[in-house]
Structures are given as structure tokens and as C-alpha cells.
Amino acid sequence: MIDLSGVSKTFEGKRKVTALHPLDLRIGRGEMVAIVGPSGSGKSTLLNLIGGLDRASSGTIAIDGESMGALGDDGLTRVRRDKIGFVFQFFNLLPSLSCIENVALPLHLRGWNRAKAVDRARELLGLVKLDGRREHLPEELSGGERQRVAIARALSVYPPILLADEPTGNLDSSTGAEILKLIRDLHRELNNTVLIVTHDMTVAESCERVIRLRDGRVVEDRRGAGNPG
Amino acid sequence: MMLRLLTLPYVRKHKLRSALTLAGIVLGVAVFVGMHTANRTVSRAFQRTIDRIAGKTQLQVTAGETGFPEQALEKVQDLREVGAASPVIEAVLSLPGKGNILVLGVDMTGDRSLREYDLEEDDVIDDPLVFLAQPDSLILSGQFARANGIVRGQKIEFGTMEGPREFTVRGIMKAGGLASAFGGNVAVMDVYAAQLIFGRGRMFDRIDIAAAEGVEVEACRARVAEALGAGYEVEAPSNRGRHFDSIARGLAITVNITSLFALLIGVFLIYNSFSIAITQRRTEIGILRALGASRRTILGMFIGESALAGAVASAIGVWMGLLMAHGVSPFLSYLVREVYGNAQVVEEIAWDWKLIAVAMAICIG
Fold first, then answer.
1. Among A93, A157, A100, which residue's Cα sits nearest to residue A125?
2. Among B1, B287, B294, whose Cβ lies nearest the Cβ of A77?
3. Measured between beta carbons, which residues in chain A are less than 8 angstroms from residue B287?
4. Which of A29, B42, B68, B72 could covalently link to B63 via disulfide, CB atoms 3.0 to 4.6 Å apart?
5. Cβ contact (<8 Å) for A53 and B9?
6. Distance of alpha carbon B239 from alpha carbon B300, whole angstroms
């Protein structure tokens, strides 16, 4: 489903920095994969390339057989809108919108009408157990609750791929475990492909597959137990 | 959709910043529209006054501030091309505490072929000799008389350049035409009495002329100029408006440039506030892009926001500018004193839709 072939990324500046050396990777439909490695190993860069937030310097990335490199800006926008949901470490909710408005936003961008989008957002907030917080602004929520809203937003269009960049990195351990459980439960329920970038080995060990990066190279790719921890 | 979804909540959350931005634009447009409209209003009002004072006059003879000898009138009247020629003296009277009034000294026996001044009680001009026999005779506009509680037959002391003088009100003009010039602050008296009262000797300030029937105004003008020779100006009354415009031009240019700066500041404020907003909302833009918003959608949202802010603020600015013009015009109208010695009364605001459209287009664009 996600195919990377000879993908590399170099940042040009005063000093040329190679964040990813050419790598090949294949991630199948419905897999839950952890990408681990120390800071600067290229984890987030890899996630951004797969998510179409950035373009590879060389190689090809294909999602469902569609090459991202061949797509223009509108094409990449369409892929992000229809196929990918993002969860970020710092939640990245829009501060001026309520929870339900944040969750409904990707649906509006897809052209859904207001009533239908709000119905779906309400359903998703129920799924992440935030029924009572619909009209609250992000600043009125705890870190865990914000991340739940972000997950609900990422799943609002039921994307086949969920990309999570350190989703528990800004949460205490018990809230982090709760969020991880939520992601796992939703993964099982929706059978989507989940890629989690993390430092946390507990999070990594709960995934079915672990890819370890170091200095922009894949140094380990193993099947884990998928231990819920 | 994006405006309702994202902009309105943003504005709600940043009320003060949004209000200050709008206030800046409102102020810029208001000053621009207000000052331009005030200039235009005063100029229009002055032109209207000239038309009312001129009546059917097609040409006016003048010779600078000091006037010219009576013989010039005879030369003009003798010309075949001239249908009617009437001498005029202009002076300003002041009624302590009540303001100034422009007195037009005219030839009561011949001037009605050029100007109409119907009286409220028609018993003076029907017998001009009675009026002429008494050099203190004055015909007041009804508006001025009513405003100051003056009735026909009343004696009033006015201030003149030659000191206080007593006049007798022997007629009250109906509203309209000449009586409406300067918002009604106008009076008429006999030109020869005016010479006496105002110490003009045997001089006139002006001769008002109507061309003879079938004679082109330009041909008449050329003939009169030729007959009078050097030192005289023969021109249409509207040229006097140009004279006023030239006096007012310096101030108008200053005011217009200042107001243009105000508008440019408004435009800069729009640009600056949206530049800041875009910088501050970079994270928001990134999130929207990650959620599947295209560049076009986001650009459209920001352009829509600035256009909406520009439209709303400039509409309020135009309204405030017209109010400002109402307030400022009377002050600018005091410029008319340079020409007539009496301030112009602004009766209505002369707005210009093109100017308003330009101000709004600049701010919205």
C-alpha cells in the first residue's frame, strides 16, 4: 500500500544536510508500524514525505500505486485530504475553534455540508469519549483531551492511513498509555494503516512492526509482538 | 465557507486587534472622503452663489480691487452688441453678534432685466424712485430678516468699512434666486446710494452684462473688451468661480494630499495587519494544508478576509467621511471671505460617487 523506493531527502542550505539516505520500504494495508530512532535520525522527515507534506530529493513514494512525486500541489492536497490523517505531538488544533468545529474542519474541506459534518464530528467525539466537551475550546482541555480531539479530527474522513508524530510525547505516561490504547483500538476497529513516530519504546513495542532509523538509514525492521503493553 | 468557519472565530478571539485594524481603515477612508468632499462642497456652493448673484448676467466687467470710473458704463451701454448693462457695487455689512451680510448695490431702474428679487410685500420696486430718493434704503433677504427679527420699515445700524451706518429696511426679498445666496445673508441697495454710503466716489466694482438678442456672448465679450481697452477684464461669471478655486487651490491641495496620506495609511494598515496575521497564523496555515486545504483555498480565505475588512471598514469610513465633510465644510467655506468678505453657507454636501468608489476600491483591492 505504501511503497518507498530509493527515497532520500537532502536539505540544501549553508550546509547540505542529508536527513534520509536512499531507502526502500513497503508498508502493507492495515499494518501498525512504529518508527523509532534518536533525534535527527530522520523519523519525522520520513513521516512528512509519506504524508505529502514534503517532497523527496530522489526516489519514489507510491500510495495505493499512485506516485506522489508525479503529483502537483493540487494532487498532493487531494491525497492528504482523502487518504491521510495526521496526529501531531503538539496536537495542532485551531485555538479559535471548538472541539466539534476542529473535528468537522477536514469534512468541510471535503465539501461536506454543515449538518452532515457536525453529525460525523459528534459521532467521532463520542468514539474518543469526549461527548461532554464538544463546545469547549482547545485551551479549556487537558493535554490528553486535546490529543483525543486531534485523533478524532485525523479520523474524521476515515482515512486509510494514520500518521502520528510523537502522539504521546507531550503527555504524562498514564495519559500517553490511554492515547496509545485509543489509537490501537481504532486501528483494530477501522483496519487502517498506522505509522507512529516515537522515542518511547513502550509505544514501539505495542506496534506490530518496528522500523529503527539511525543517521537517516534503516538499521532495523522487525515484526514486534504488537503487545498492548 | 472558510470565512464563516475560520475567520469569524479568529476575529471573535482577537477582538481588539481586529477592531484596531478596522478603525485604522475607517479613519483613513473617512479623512480622505471627508476632506475631498468638503473641498468639493465649498467649491460647488460658491459656484451656486455666483450663479444666484449673477442672475441672467452673461458677462462681467471688472478692473481689480479698486473698481473703475462710471464712464465705463456709458461706453458699454452704447454698444450695439450689449442688451443690458447694470453697474454693481459689493460691500459687506456686519450686524454685531449676528454675522456679516453681503450688500449688492445695483441700479434699481435697470437691474431687474438681469436679476429677479421678488419682494414679500411688493410696494417698493414698483416705485423705484421712492426707494432711490432715500439712500439708506435696503432690501433684506427674508431669511436674514426672520432670523434676526427684522421687519419692513425698521431702522438698523450696521457696521461698515466707514464706521457704523443706519439703514432702513424698505423691502424683504422672497426666498430663492439672489435671496438664497450665502444662505440668505444678502441684501440689495441702490448702486448710487452704495457709492455714497461706502465712500466709493464715482466708481463701480463691476458691470453685469447680458448680450443683445441674436448676439453671441463671445462676440459681445470681444466688443466690450475692445471698447474698454486695457485694464479691464471681461469674462463670464463662472470665471469668478475659477478665481475662487485658484485662491482655494493651495489649501485644497494641502488638504487633499493630507487626506491621501490618511488613505494610504489605511491601505498600509490593511497590508500590515494581514501580513502580521499571516505570520502569526503560519501554524494555522500549516495545519490547514495538512488537513487537505489547497493553496488556492487558503489564499482565497486571506484575500476574502482582507476584502471583507476593506469593504466593511471603508463603507463605515465613507459614512463617517460624509459626516466629517458636514462638519468641516463651514470652516473651509470661510475662504469665500477672500472673495466676497462673507462666509459661504453650505446648504448640501456635494459628494462624488467616483471618489467614494475609488477610496473603497483602493481599500478593498
1. A100
2. B294
3. 92-94
4. B68
5. no
6. 52
